[in-house]
Amino acid sequence: MSDKKIAVKVDHVSKFFKLPTEATKSLRTSLVNRFKGVKGYKEQHVLKDISFEVEEGDFFGILGRNGSGKSTLLKIISQIYVPEKGSVTVNGKLVSFIELGVGFNPELTGRENVYMNGAMLGFTTEEIDAMYDDIVDFAELKEFMNQKLKNYSSGMQVRLAFSVAIKAQGDVLILDEVLAVGDEAFQRKCNDYFMERKKSGKTTILVTHDMGAVKKYCNKAVLIEHGLVKAIGNPENVANQYSFDNTAPLHQDATEEGQHAAEAQEEVVRVENFKLQLLTPNQISPADEIRFQMDFDVLEDIETYIALSLTDIDRNIWIYNDNSMDAMMSGKGHKTVHYTCSLPNVNDLKMKLEVTVRDKDGQMLAFSDATQTPIIFINRKDIAPDDTSALDSASGLIQRNGHWTMKD
Predict the structure, then answer these.
(1) Which of 61, 83, 217, 236 is most deeply packed, by most CB within 10 A?
(2) Threshold 0.85, pTM exceeds
(3) Could you give the CA distance from residue 351 to residue 317 in angstroms, rounded to a whole number?
(4) Which family is this protein grouped under (predicted)?
């Protein structure tokens, strides 16, 4: 059992909202509906018996798709909403940053907005005095603090609002989807701050869709789905669960694309019995090869080739692709194709392998559907846990290095 103190305790929290189902100005109709038991609204249950604990010093991630209840949960923790059932206990001063610039007044100067926003967060004038220089230095807006906020660019406003939140000396910091604020230089500065905060032992609760950020900063995480806790604990495992959950709709999109392509061809089938098989393990290191096999039957005397891609599931971007037409095959009959490639110098990737069969004009004839699309994990095992630059994943497309083996 941990000796750490509890910073935030969410205890069996439930929350619902009343959504009107009809609008009536008639008193008679309202009374008739009341006697019939028609409420005029329906209950939307956003959170259902949520429980978890955040210990002092945790960098705690809250994950979930849009509509899962994450923002409602944050507003309950921040005491903006009151739960229907359960309770939330926060030990210490809470600084909540749910939306950029909330509480800022465009008619006031940057300096005045800092003091006003600090007061809204519960700090005294003396406490804000002590934090003011740090806030201004981090935002890099010293020469603009006596100008009205309405004269700031949007980027300047974002920097100031974010700096107030993260530099306010609270015991618990809550951040909702704010890791991409500002320009590239400011984002690097924020990254350095989060790494320092992680080491400092200060408590942070982060809501994000960026699984790379979850793995980089968080030591614990919880996944919310349909208002329920689906997974909790190790951030790597929770992030993987989130990524797997999100592959289903992506696969469905690919399936629908293939169906539309087939309809456009007036349902003329020229390739059938397509099968994709991964020949190497799902979990590999960058030093390992990736090998897979494709089998299919060509029903007409046409030329066909394979196009393939490896897509980063977390960011939904291509990491590797090959549509070079190097594997062009002629004639009808059964085709077997092997492909081998490697992804050196990358780390911490979850990829889906997608393959299509195309004719010489690029028309898609067959594709790997959701039941055939393999998921591949690639991780280095030769780096120290605190080597953050080496731990980072690939940032762009890897140069093609694969080779084909074909058999009719």
Answers:
(1) 61
(2) no
(3) 10
(4) Belongs to the ABC transporter superfamily.
